[in-house]
Amino acid sequence: MVISIHQPDYIPWLGFYYKMAHCDKFVYLDDAQFSNTAAHNFNVIKVSQGELRLKIPVDYKMGDKINNVRTKDELGWKKKHLKTIEYNYSKAPFFKKIFPELSDIYNDEYKNIADFNIRLNAYICDGFGIAPEIYRSSDLNINSAREERVLDICSALGGDEYLSGNGARAYQVEEHFTDRNIKLTYLDYKPIVYEQLWGDFLPCMSVLDYLFNKGFDWNYVEDCVKQLNTQE
Fold this sequence. Notes:
Blueprint: E1 2-6, H1 14-21, E2 25-28, E3 42-47, E4 50-55, E5 58-59, E6 70-71, H2 77-89, H3 95-106, H4 113-128, E7 133-136, H5 146-156, E8 161-164, H6 174-178, E9 183-186, H7 207-214, H8 218-230
Parallel strand pairs: 1-2, 1-8, 2-7, 8-9
Antiparallel strand pairs: 3-4, 5-6
Helix pairs in contact: 2-3
């Protein structure tokens, strides 16, 4: 049973969904501390001048958990983000199919940014055909921290393998996992190339860039990553 964990980010890159596609159970770490330097409320799309950051204004104070952070909808950010997306992707092949569905999700009401991000990701996963069992850490009543919390979540969900992002290599200790009978593996995702608007290819854009240009073609992602890994 493969477990993976990630904070609920805003329109994340394809690697986020690749992680979801390669686990059996996926946990949104929605009660982690909110950070305005992480991708909890921003990401980048491709525009004619290069890349552009879309950032959600939020109401928070230091130490707030992601699922307690309110988006400042009164500032009209949803309309602004949708207009920016429309302006830059209206000529993309799959814009007319995806944009109306995306707009409906944006224009709904949410208690906090975690709820919004998770709802948006659910729509994208459904389109891709990615369907792990979904959990929220806030529902698991596990109060340990950092690596110990990861281990406790895996144990609570019956996991015998933890699929980790590569950024955690700096602080995770493999022996700590093997001591708990959990195999530690790292994501083998590599940024892929696909057709984009606006000139030269830019890697690591928000998933929206892929959706509007390639639709919900998840097989293309898997095939490209497999090819990149066999070239090593």
